[in-house]
Amino acid sequence: MKTYFILGFLLISQSSFSQTILGKWTTIDDETGNKKAVVEIFEEQGKLFGKIIEILEADKKKQRCTKCEGADKDKPILGLTIIKGLIKNGSSYEGGEITDPKNGKTYRCKISLEGKDKLIVRGYLGISLFGRSQTWVRQK
């Protein structure tokens, strides 16, 4: 009996440790509830980044980030890296930034996994209290 309990505990704890935010996520607009794009989150040199790999709104597939500043100005939104430089901090990732291609603004960013298939993405100015969150869902 004791062996089954220990084995069960190990299996449950292993599955919770193996959850990752790496992969493809469908973005959901927090204002309209519409699916907008697919973002692939990947790791590079110990930091996380997110790139738009698919735009789901047919009329926006060829848009450029005309309101972006710096190196991203006038780049196509498809292929744009919108999440940059997040590092793990406990159960969340933070310390990086996220760009909203709609308005070209860059915000501080915090991401946390809710369950295994929901990602809470928060963009904010200054402190996390002053921002907004979106829920993204994992691509199957």
From TrEMBL:
Signal peptide: none annotated. Pfam families: DUF2147 (PF09917). Residues 23-138 form the DUF2147 domain. This is DUF2147 domain-containing protein. It comes from Flavobacterium cheonhonense.
